[in-house]
Amino acid sequence: MLDGMMRKVIDPTLNQWGRSLARKGYGADHVTLAGLAVGLLAAAFIAFGWTWMALVPLLASRLADGLDGAVARATKRTDFGGYLDIASDFLFYGAVPFGFVLMDPAANGIAGAFLIFSFYVNGATFLGFAILAEKREMKTSARGTKSLYFTGGLLEGTETIVFFVLICLWPAAFPVLAWIFGALCFVTAVSRVLLARKVFP
Fold this sequence. Notes:
Blueprint: H1 3-23, H2 28-47, H3 51-74, H4 79-103, H5 105-135, H6 157-169, H7 174-199
Helix pairs in contact: 1-3, 2-3, 2-4, 3-4, 3-6, 4-5, 5-7
C-alpha cells in the first residue's frame, strides 16, 4: 500500500548510490546476493534470540534490495537479475519468520507456520498476476521500474519491513503480530484474485 509513495521518496537517493556502485564495478547481481546473505544472517541472529542485533543486517538487506535495481538501471537490466531478485526476496521473507520459529518453537511455531503459509499464498497470487500481465504486455511504473509487473495491495514491501522491525523489537509479541499480519496477507491475496478476475476475464 505504501510502496508507491516510498519509491518517490527513496528512488532519487538510491539511483545516485546505484550509479556510484556501478562506477566502482559492482554489478546488480552482486548487490542482490550480498543483500540475501545479510538477510539470512539476520534470520540466524533471530534464531539465536539476538533479535535486536538482527535489525542491522535486516535493514541492510532491504537497502541492498533497493540498490540492486538502482545499479541495474545504471548499467544493464537483465531478465536473470529480476529473477534472482524476486527469488532472493521470497527466501528472505520466509527466513525471518522461520528464525522466530527456531528461536521458540513452542511459543512461535503455529503462528509462524500460519504466517509463512500466508506468504506462500500471497506470493502465488502476486507471481501469477505478473505472468498474465507479462503475457498481455501490461506495464506499470507506480512502484519503480521492475522486471516483473508489481500489483498493489494492502501489504507490500514497506509494510513487511515495518512488521519485521516490530517483531525484532518486541519478539514476545511475535505470535499475536504474526496472526494479524498473516490474516492481512490473505486479505491482500484475495483482493489480488478479485483484481485478476476483473483484468483477465
